[in-house]
Amino acid sequence: MAEPGVIPQSAALSEATPDSLDDYMSKDPEVITEAEKDALIERLRAMRVKWEASDKEKPQRAAGKTIADKAKSLVSGASAADLDL
Amino acid sequence: MTLDTSTNTSFSVKVPGLQLAVDSTSLGEFKTCPRKYYYSIIMGYQTRLESVDLTFGILLHSAVEHYHKAKAAGQGHQEALRSALTWTLVATWNKTLQRPWNSGEPEKNRLTLVRTLVWYLDAHGDNDSLQTVVLTNGKAAVELPFQFDSGFVTHSGERWVLCGHLDRIAKLNEVSYVVDLKTTKGSLGPSFFERFSPDNQFSMYALAGRIAFNEPISALIVDAAQVGVTFSRFDRALVQRDAGQADEWLKDTGYWLGMMEAYAIEGYWPQNDKACHQYRGCQFRQICARSPASRAPWLESQYKRRSWDPLARRTDV
User: Fold this and answer.
1) Is B156 in contact with B18 (CB distance < 8 Å)?
2) Minimum distance, in Å, between the CA of residue A35 and any CA atom of chain B
3) Tens of pLDDT along chain B (317 residues)?
């Protein structure tokens, strides 16, 4: 396994990555301030909210139901909700 | 080829090539193919290409470990999250070259690692129904190294130990579970979770929870993260291992260890040519496809070497 970082430079990290996140990713972490880290966390949280909203619009996955049902049958005293399924 | 494993602390000093401290990866490689085990574990050959899945998994595990330790030390969620984020950013930055880790993959890269970390810890960090056990020394029960006597002894009187690391021991409604974080690019459907029963690694972990940590473990929890290009999705499932299953696995392990010893004494590890094309194909397929006399120079030129010593560092992600 190569050490992280010893990899040829290539194109953008992700096609879906906004430029502002690319800026964070290309910046030496030693010069990123605590406030900037909090801002990065908030940006990522906003991405999550946006993605969850779009994901909810999709049809319910059958797989999730199956796993939850299985958990119910396996855990005595715990519900699927307890497991965040 | 001269075999010298005397400098590897996990190997026998009496029988060259006989591993006595066995982690789930080593045992898994041996079960898959003794020749593959010989090349990758005993000889320590690995491909020169980076395994992005392995790197990503190790980095995420370590970052989450930082979070749990910070929380156990009294930090709040945001502070611990920032601490884990800082560690991740530093760990994925090449200071010499002044550039970030670039995996070359759209799903598993530096940004998706950071995104997965933040989303995961926001989902399961602060108000997680699974409460990380705090050990008697006050530390969080995360990244726990274990080794315990297997109960099996070699013909020369040496004892085998089983070893590795548990991601976390956590409680849900006062019941203890070994929790193992897995990342995948695939979907988190039933077929993903079914792969852990039966499973070599999970059976060893269940046994470790019982024996090494004296916790009444009857099930494990797969804490799964699906990592996509634009999203990270999380799901959990129980993986049951009752006492009967654990006993059966341990009994079977005795047979596998016996084969390990027999092959080490013979100095010969046979090919299992039915395993060459499993998954994405064995990394030594190109070697085994050659005539035996021509393999050694190819191994030296196409692969790099490292010491596989599970007593020295974490090897089982």
Assistant:
1) no
2) 10
3) 568 898 899 999 999 999 999 999 999 999 999 999 999 999 999 999 888 999 999 999 999 999 999 998 899 999 999 999 999 999 999 999 999 999 999 999 999 999 999 999 999 988 899 988 888 888 889 999 999 999 999 999 999 999 999 999 999 999 999 999 999 999 999 999 999 999 999 999 999 999 988 888 889 999 999 999 999 999 999 999 999 999 999 999 999 999 999 999 999 999 999 999 998 899 999 999 999 999 999 999 999 999 999 998 665 65
Q: Is the four-CA dihedral B250, B252, B254, B259 of positive or negative sign?
A: negative
Min Cα distance B173 → chain A (Å) is 7
By CB neighbour count within 10 A (0-12 exposed, 13-18 middle, 19+ buried), where does B227 fall?
A: buried
Q: What pTM, to 2 d.p., does this model score?
A: 0.85
ipTM over 0.90: no
Mutate to test the interface with A, among B115, B126, B233 (most CBs of A within 10 A): B115
Among A52, A65, A66, A75, most B C-beta atoms within 10 A, so best to mutate, is: A75
User: Would you give the distance in Å from CA B259 to the centre of its chain?
Assistant: 22
